[in-house]
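User: My collaborator sent over this chain with a note saying "see what the structure looks like." That's all I know about it. Can you take a look?
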Amino acid sequence: MLVNTRARVGVFSIALGAYLPQFPSLESEFKAQYEAFKKTLPDTVEVIDGGLVTTKELSMAAGDKFRAADVDLVILQLLTYATSYNMLPAVRDLHVPVVLVNVQKLRAPDYANTDTPKWLGELYACGAVGEMAADLERAGKCYAVITGVAEGGDPYVQAELDSWCRAAQVRRRFRDTNLAQIGRPYPGMMDLYIDEANLYNRMWLYTKQFDWEKMWAIADPVTDQELIEARARDILDTFDMEGGGTVEKVWDMARYVAAFEEWVREEKIGFVASHYDGFARGIGGKLDSMLIPAFSMLIKQGTACAVEGDIKVAMAMSILKTIGGTGQLSEMYSIDFHEDICIIGHSGSGDADISQSRKPTMKIVPIFHGKTGGGYLTQFYPPTGPVTYLGITQDGDGNFKFVAAEGVNEEGPIFLFGDTNMRTRFSIGAREFCNQWSQAGPTHHMAAACGRHVDTILKVAKIFNVSVDVICR
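Assistant: Without extra context I'll predict from the sequence alone. Here is the result:
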C-alpha cells in the first residue's frame, strides 16, 4: 500500500496468583502456553504484550501499556481459572473489544492420570470465561468468546483470530490515514452528504479538503522521465486499451499517477472521494478525462477512490479491501427477472485485484453519462463465485450503520458499454434482495469484494460500535 498501517493488538494472559505457590510447576507451564499462543497471531499486527497477569497490579500495568499504545483490540488468553480483577484493570479504560480466547491445551483428559496441577494447567480454560463475560457486560464493554483447543491445532480458533486481526486493521487504517475530499458530492445526491466533524467523532476518520485547482497543477513538478515511463508501463500492464496502448499514449496519465502517488504519501491519504462538475476545458478537462484510470491505479495500491464525492462508499471500499483483498464501488444496475439475477456495478475507477476473469479494459467515450465531459472509462471483470456487498449509511441522529449481504456471482452476459458489472444471485431472490436492501436505508452505492466476509464485517462493526443489517448470506 502507498500508506502502510499496522494494527496494534494488546495481548495478555491470566491465571489465579494463588495457584502458583501451591503448584510451582504451573508458572513455567503457563509461560510456555502464553508464548506459544502469541505465535498464532498473524505477523500483520503489532503485538503489545501485557504479559502473564496473576494480580490486580500486573493487570493495571498491562492496561497502562495498552492505553499508551492506543491498541485497536485486546486479546485475552484464559489459561486457567482466574478472578475478574486479573482482567478488568487492563481493559476498564479502553474502548475496544476484548476477545476472550477460551482455548484448552489438551483435547481431552486422561482421567485416571490427571492430578490437580495437570487439571488446572492443561484442562481448565473454560472455568473463567463466564466470569469474565459477566463483568465485561456489567462494565459496558464489547467482547467476544472463542472456544477451542491447542493440541493438534484448531482451524476454527485460528480463523477467528485472523479475522479479528483483520478487523482491527480497519480501525488502525481509519485512525492513521486521512480522507481526501476533492470538490463536493454530486449535486442533489443527498444520501451521500455527510458531516465531516461527525465522521471524525464517530469513525475516527479525518477529512482533508482539496480544490480541483490544486489537483490540476499536481503533476507540474513531475519531470523524472524514468518514473513517468515506469508508471506508463504499469498502466499498460494493468489495462487492455481499446485501439492498442503505447507509452506515449498514456504519458500524461502516467505523470498524474506518479503525482497522485506522491500526494497520497505526503498527505497520508487512505481514502479519496471526488467529483468534478466544471466546464471540462483546458487543463481541468484534460485531468478529468483521465482521472478514472489514474484513480484506479491508486485503488490497486490500497487507496480507496470513490466517484461522485461519496465518502461513505470510499469507507466501505477500504473496509472490504482491508479485510478481503478487494474493494469495488457498485450500485444496483438492473434485474434480470428471467434469471432471478441482480445486475450490480458502476462506472468509474475500480479495483484491478477484483478483475480476476480477465484483464481490465480501458476505452475512450465522448460523454461520461450524467457528468461533465468525456474521456477514459475502465471496466473490471469480477470472477464467478461468492461475493460480499457492504454499504455504509446513517440514521437521522447521525449514527453510522453497515448494510451487508453475501451472494454468488454467476456466468452469463454482462453490459459491455464500459462499466464494471456482475450478475449476482442472492439466497432470497433478486426481488426480495432489492426490497430488503433498500428498506435498510442505505445510500445508493455499495462496495463489493470477492469472497464471503460478513463474519469479519460484524467484527469491524463491534470495533466501531455501529449496528449492522445483514440482508442475506
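A starting point for your reply to your collaborator: The chain has a mean pLDDT of 96.
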